[in-house]
Amino acid sequence: MNSKKKKLPPDSSVPRRLDRDRRVRQNARIARVLGVLNLIQSRGRWNLKAIASELECSTRTIQRDLEVLEFAGVPWYVDPADKCYRVRADYQFPTLMLTQDETIGQVVATALSKASGLDISSGASPTTRKLAATGNGEIQQLIADAARMIEVFDLKLVDHSQHQVVVKTLQNALLQGNKVSGRYDSPYEDETVRLTIHPYRLCLVKQAWYVIGHIEGETEAKTFRVARFKSLRMLEEPALVPDQFDLGEYFGNAWSVYRGEKSYQVKLRFEPQAARIVAETIWHHTQEVKQHQDGSVTLNFTVDGLDEILHWVLAWSGKVKVEAPETLRTMLLQELNAAISLNSTNHKH
Q1: Per DSSP, which regions of the chain are E strands?
Q2: Could you say which of 44, 56, 172, 232 is the most buried, measured as most Cβ atoms within 10 Å of its Cβ?
Q3: Taking each helix axis from N to C terminus, what angle separates 48-55 and 10-41, rounded to the nearest 10 degrees?
């Protein structure tokens, strides 16, 4: 945590920034040219105006991109009947030679990235469309068949559909090594707070996306939930990121994202009716399972802090006994008593 990236002197940082910007522009142009090829190879009717609208650029830019494709040997032409661009039917743009497993893996990635909560960007769909447009008939059919059969449903993740701009800002900041600044709605503050953050990592933990980094003027890394940012922008200032930062070491044995100061050995015994269900899932990387002759099962965990695992144990109420530690059993009983009181017919607000 104490090791910091050295700042470049001003005279050497300018060429590096310009070179980086040039590569970004080049990559954007290549992506757009390939996007044009993808469209005119598809079954749609794409004229100059439609392509420009789809790719959000001018018709003159599309004309230049078509010239690039022609120079690269792509045999496109204007279909006089449909008045749109086409590529000669026998032409195949050189693509990766994917195996059946690799192709299905790409379709699975597409399904995952479209699931509610994971749809934080365009995901894998554009790549899959390009593979389908440029692959041979067998690959095209495999992609179509797999897409019909594979779906991801009801993951119960935090809704990030309104935070795609925030996620993209964080992605760009992390790739370019820059700070970010914005308004954050912390559950521990009465009002939103303005923060400048040196981001280290963007990660999905349990049901939500988080960014790990330290606040300007501090050194301790903290965890920020992406969905709580009300606004965010990237600054043209380099972020200070520890060279040896390790995400696994940072989270340690936290049950989820918030690591407590004290480590506990947790021992939970589940009744037979819940044993099989609970044991078939890996809930934590320290999990150890012991089966018993009566059909019950004991799960052992090493966790840093008890608050997060407490809420998980509550979901199994009536089917689990806390055998250790005593502190967790006491916390569980307090929560259960509070629930009974709150739902009692005699409860008064």
Answers
A1: 76-79, 84-87, 178-184, 193-205, 208-215, 222-225, 229-238, 263-270, 288-291, 297-304, 320-324
A2: 232
A3: 140
Query: pLDDT-based confidence at 213, cuts 50/70/90?
Result: very high
- Please name the amino acid found at residue 132: A
pLDDT digits (tens, 9 = 90+) for 262-290: 999 999 999 999 999 999 999 999 999 99
Distance CA 2, CA 22 (A): 33
- Close Cβ partners of 126 (under 8 Å, ≥ 6 residues apart): none
Contacts of 206 (CB under 8 A, 6+ apart): 256, 257
Does pTM surpass 0.70?
no
> Domain of 322: which CATH number?
3.30.70
271 in any annotated domain? yes
Residues 139 and 202 in one domain: no
Spatial distance between the Cα atoms of 229 and 309, rounded to a whole number of angstroms: 26
pLDDT score of 311 more than 90:
yes
Q: Residue 39: which CATH number?
A: 1.10.10.10
Report the alpha-carbon distance of residue 109 to residue 125 in Å, rounded: 8
Neighbours of 173 (CB within 10 A): 24
Residues 244 and 188 in one domain: yes
- Total number of domains constituting the chain: 4
Q: Are residues 75 and 113 in the same domain?
A: no
Q: Is residue 4 part of a domain?
A: no
Q: Indicate whether 325 belongs to any domain.
A: yes
Q: Which residues of 247-284 are buried (b: 16+ CB within 10 A; e: fewer)?
A: eeebbebbbbbebbeeebebbbbbbeeebeebbeeeeb
Whether pLDDT at 70 is above 70? yes
Residue ranges making up the domain that contains 57: 20-87
Per 3-state DSSP, the chain is made up of helix, strand and coil in percentages (nearest 5) of 40, 20, 35
Q: How far apart are CA 22 and CA 266, in angstroms?
A: 54
**Secondary element (H or E) of residue 104:** helix 100-114
Could you give the CA distance from residue 330 to residue 271 in angstroms, rounded to a whole number? 20
